[in-house]
Amino acid sequence: MRILEQQLNEIFHDDEPSRYVPSRTPLYFAYLAGEVRFFAAPSIQPISEFYRRYHHLMASYESLPQMKKSPLRTPDQLEWELRVNAGFALQMLVEAVRALKNEGGVVDHTEEWTPAEYPALPPIPSPAFAVTSKADRVRAEARGA
C-alpha cells in the first residue's frame, strides 16, 4: 500500500500527470482478494473501494492515447481528470489501511532515505548474502570488508 500511496501522490501533485508512466502494481491484491472473504464485514468495503478507485485510475492511464485524441476533453481537462482520480483513491487509502490493520495487518517501519546529491552516491551496507562472484570479492576488498 505504501508504494501505491507514493504513486498516487506523484500523480495528484504533478501539473502534467499524463507524462507520468505508472505501472499497475498488483502487489498483494491478487492474494488479498482471495483472503477478503475471511475479513469482518466492515473491513471489506473500504479495501475494495480503494482498489476500485485505484483500478479506475489505472484504466484511465491505459486508455490515455485514445483520451488524448478525443475532442471531448481539452488537455487541461485530461490532466485534471487524472489528478482527480488519484485524489479519489487517496481519499480511501487511510480507511483501507485502517481496515487492513483491524484484520491483523502490520505496517512495518521503513527506514528513511538519506538524500544524495550529484556526484556523491549514497552509502550502502555490506552485502547481505555471501560474496560469490569475483567482481563481488573485488568490491568487498576495496571497501575493506
Overall mean pLDDT stands at: 84
Order of helices and strands: HHHHHH
Fraction in beta strands: under 5%
Largest sheet features: none
Total DSSP helices? 6
Low-confidence stretches: none
Sequence-ordered SSE layout with sheet pairings:
Elements (H helix, E strand, L loop, with lengths): L1 H12 L15 H7 L5 H22 L1 H6 L5 H28 L31 H10 L2
Structural overview:
- The chain has 145 residues and is mainly alpha-helical.
- It has a domain at 2-102.
- The protein is built from six helices and no strands.
- It has helices spanning 2-13, 29-35, 41-62, 64-69, 75-102, 134-143.
- α3 (41-62) runs antiparallel to α5.
- The chain is extended, with a radius of gyration of 21 Å.
- The chain starts with a helix and ends with a helix.
Summarize the structure.
This protein is an all-alpha fold.
Task: Provide keyphrases for this structure.
145 residues; mainly alpha; 6 helices; extended
